[in-house]
Design a protein that fits this description.
two-stranded antiparallel sheet, 5-stranded mixed sheet, alpha/beta, elongated
């Protein structure tokens, strides 16, 4: 549709300053209101079957019955619109539905601000400063509460039958306990899967007071109930009993300890001046060409550092069975398997969203914000690098399990 020059010239008569066009009482806002009212009038005409200004058919009792005032909230601020009515109240406008008070994706704006970590008070101030909108805390809460329905649907969705890799991790969030009214550090559990086609997919999130193997077993059983029948490789942190929880649900799964977690744990025992040297020597272990060479490097590490940091090498030996599986893969793709870098990236996105919150009033409030952070994480790209080479090796090593 093209608007003629003559119509534009007529509309712009008297527009001399920017605010005459774009201001709160400017042409653009008035034009939007008038167009909406015109469209609403056209809808009522279609509903009644006769034009405004004409007489209703003699046999028809329903007819126009004036207008009612409604104030809509949008990115242009508040828009006072006259909504046409009919006598028997059977008119259901599509342009502005009954009960609707917001337009221009205002719900999306509120959810976007909430996802960025803004509190209800911050969102109120932002909408007032930017759009001149006075929005009640109750409205913001109702809009964000709708996210919980999306979370429930997402959390119960069916999953793939097989995932070549699933990375498990937990982070801590401060949440107020409903019974004691004290703030507790609760664990947010996240499972990040890699599909057969090399797409990252967050399988779910769970909140509990403590990170423990018993809880992880319940997570494994939930994944099974949602359709997962096989996980080829599970990448985990150093939680004691976690491998047993995984293999109890998925007996054939290869469990790989996250080297990043193991190195970080090792460096916690070191003084600052030795950390760089210790990290370099640990890299010789997990960067070795084979498991045998890696074990020799661990022996050399222990000979060098046992006198100063006696607990590091034994920690690696206790986890050795879960440290070595990645040596069976090509060095070019080992990073996909032995490190939780992908889930660490997800955790950074989550922490960025929650860092402005001292604590959350409920588990549901934390769940809403964390889910929105996950949704943003998955929008930024889900492809795993080097996946073509990894897929070929998975197909060879796991055979029918990969192709099932």
């Amino acid at each position: 549709m093209t608007i003629s020059k003559e119509i534009l010239d007529e509309l712009l008569k008297g527009v001399e300053r920017p605010e005459d066009l774009l201001g709160d009482a400017g042409l653009m806002k008035e034009l939007k209101i008038k167009l909406m009212e015109r469209m609403l009038g056209a809808e009522l005409t279609a509903h009644l079957g006769y034009e405004d200004g004409e007489s209703a058919p003699p046999s028809q009792s329903n007819r126009r019955n004036g207008t009612s005032a409604k104030v809509l909230k949008g990115q242009d601020g508040e828009l006072p619109v006259a909504i046409p009515r009919d006598r028997d109240s059977s008119f259901e406008p599509e342009m502005v539905k009954k009960g609707q008070t917001r337009i221009d994706g205002m719900d999306d704006k509120i959810i976007g601000l909430y996802a960025a970590g803004l509190t209800v008070r911050d969102i109120q101030a932002h909408l007032l400063d930017l759009y001149g909108l006075k929005v009640s805390p109750d409205l913001i809460s109702r809009v964000t509460a709708a996210v919980l329905d999306e979370v429930r649907e997402w959390q119960s969705r069916a999953l793939d039958r097989m995932y070549p890799i699933v990375l498990f991790d937990a982070l801590r969030v401060k949440i107020r306990d409903a019974d004691s009214r004290t703030v507790k550090n609760k664990a947010v559990y996240v499972a990040l899967g890699v599909t057969r086609d090399g797409q990252r997919e967050v399988l779910g999130l769970w909140i509990a007071e403590n990170e423990g193997a018993k809880f992880w077993l319940s997570v494994m059983n939930e994944l099974k109930n949602r359709g997962v029948q096989d996980i080829l490789i599970a990448v985990v942190d150093g939680l004691k009993g976690f491998p047993d929880a995984i293999t109890a649900a998925f007996p054939d799964t290869m469990v790989q300890t996250c080297i990043v977690h193991l190195v970080r744990h090792s460096l916690n025992f070191c003084s600052w001046k030795d950390r760089k040297a210790v990290a370099a020597d640990l890299r010789r272990i997990y960067g070795a060409a084979t498991a045998d060479i890696a074990e020799a490097e661990l022996d050399a590490f222990e000979d060098k550092w046992a006198g100063k940091y006696a607990s590091i090498a034994p920690a690696w030996r206790r986890a050795w069975q879960e440290v070595t599986p990645f040596f069976g893969f090509d060095p070019a793709i080992r990073k996909i398997i032995y490190t939780t870098n992908a889930i660490e990236s997800l955790n950074r996105v989550i922490r960025k969203s929650i860092k402005t919150r001292g604590s959350f009033p409920t588990d549901e409030a934390a769940t809403k914000l964390i889910y929105l952070a996950i949704r943003n994480f998955e929008k930024d790209g889900r492809n795993v690098r080097e996946w073509f080479a990894a897929r070929n090796q998975f197909a060879i090593m796991f055979g029918e399990r990969f192709d099932a």
